[in-house]
Amino acid sequence: MFKKEESPSQGLKIIIIGCGKVGRTLIEQLRREGHDITIVDKNRERISQLSNVYDVMGIVGNGASYKIQKEAGINTADLIIAVTGSDELNLLCCTIATQVGNCAAIARVRTPEYSQEAEYLREKLGLALIINPELEAAIDMAHILYLPSSLEVTSFAHGQAELIKYEIPEGSPIDGVKIMDLGHKLHSNVLIGAIERDDEVMIPSGNVTLQKGDRLSFVGAHKHAKEFFSHIGVNTHSVKNTLIIGGGKAAYYLAKQLISRGIKVKIIENDFARCEELSILLPEAIIINGDGTDQTLLKEEGIETCQSFVPLTGIDEENIMLTLFAKQVSNAKVITKLNRITFTEVINSLDLGSVIYPKYITSEAIVAYVRAKKNSMNCNIETLYHMYDARVEAIEFYVSEESAVTNIPLKDMKLKDHLLICFISRNGKLIIPTGNDCIQKNDTVMIITTHSGFTNIQDILK
Fold first, then answer.
1. With 50 as the cut, is the pLDDT of residue 9 above it?
2. Which CATH class is domain 13-131?
3. pLDDT tens digits for 393-430?
4. Is 426 within 8 Å of 372 (Cβ atoms)?
5. Do 13-131 and 248-356 fold alike per CATH?
């Protein structure tokens, strides 16, 4: 056992089983938010390193062992999170924990067969969440390919609203336009929530003038987002075909999403047995057995003419090189999936198109749950999304009761600086708010802020 220094904590007692990429990301984020973390892994070296770096309790052993869970403090834990490489082990860890402790349990489950039964498993095993990072990443990638001019597309309010990141190119009609004039000039019903300019991120006021090279994130209904793009002369059509390199779980999930929308899919996979599996699982897709890093093969299979290109090998460096090659030889919309690399400044300096990090998708869903659980008031965080390298948070709250923020015109509220209320969802209707709008009980409200750690809608007040 590796002990941490004792310190008073207002956070939850959390046990994390599995200290791989996702586990490490969770330790870092949850520790930063002040929670009391105990980690469990079979790898002694990994436990030793993470215990020292993050000042957490570390236990070497099998997380599904009752003895190890007792040693980790399962009897007094608030939450157990199982993110080992094995779905079965994760489910077993959580099942044992809920039997012997009085804690909530979250399992990472990636196998397609289990994912189709996620709701059933969650209910029958009494789990708080079942998370599938590959499936969630595939959904995000599919949304980007449906609207290929965007860099990122994230859904809020059960798909009613989208948060879209877009870089203003040279010659854009919005270059040099003040935000306050956008609605009048373009008749657009979207709201710009954040802008990254020269590595600085701001929550803009209406007086900010947009510039070429700005990476802006705007919020609106899908229909209004497409209208906004149309008004500024940007392509709003979905891609018609995609070339995927690698035939793993993420490729399978992405292909399923795209095929259901009538998009043609071609997958290049090195392993012949996996190709045979995929041809049965995805009869509508074209499956090619070959080395996806072979330039001659890539050209033969149409990299120069495809509308979108998604390298999904298990190796980040390969994905980056493939993206850069695609950028060189084609005009394809490119998405780069990265699992491990954390050299953010280097990554940002490369032209990698849209970049997806499955480990962050997983950790955001868990952090959102933890914040909602930590909050004693009956107000739920529905969605949490980190933007611009976690310098900005987009949070969706469900307002379940009257409070200091309800029934008051927004213009009369004393809101914190560097914060914007982006939409109110009420009875299935999306409202892009003005100063005269009020938040009401049972609304869903989304905010964007440079503050972090909000657990309640009332945190928006000074």
1. no
2. alpha beta
3. 999 999 988 999 999 999 999 999 999 999 999 998 99
4. no
5. yes
What's the helix, strand, coil split of the chain in %, to 5? 35, 25, 40
Q: Which CATH architecture has domain 137-231?
A: 2-Layer Sandwich (3.30)
Q: Where are the domains of the chain?
A: 13-131, 137-231, 248-356, 361-460
Report whether 195 contacts 208 (CB < 8 A): yes
Q: Which superfamily is assigned to 361-460 in CATH?
A: Regulator of K+ conductance, C-terminal domain (3.30.70.1450)
Q: Which of 53-57, 273-277, 374-378, 444-448 has the lowest mean pLDDT?
A: 374-378
| Beta carbons within 8 Å of 150's beta carbon, 6+ residues apart | 144, 164, 165, 166, 354
Residue (of 456, 254, 431) closest to 358 by Cα position? 254
Beta bridge partners of 268: 245, 288
Amino acid at 132: N
Q: Which of 101, 62, 60, 108 is nearest to 81 (CA)?
A: 108
Please count the helices (runs of H) and the strands (runs of E) in the chain: 15, 22
Provide φ and ψ at 400, rounded to 5°. Answer: -95, -5
In single-letter form, the type of residue at position 306 comes to C
pTM: 0.88
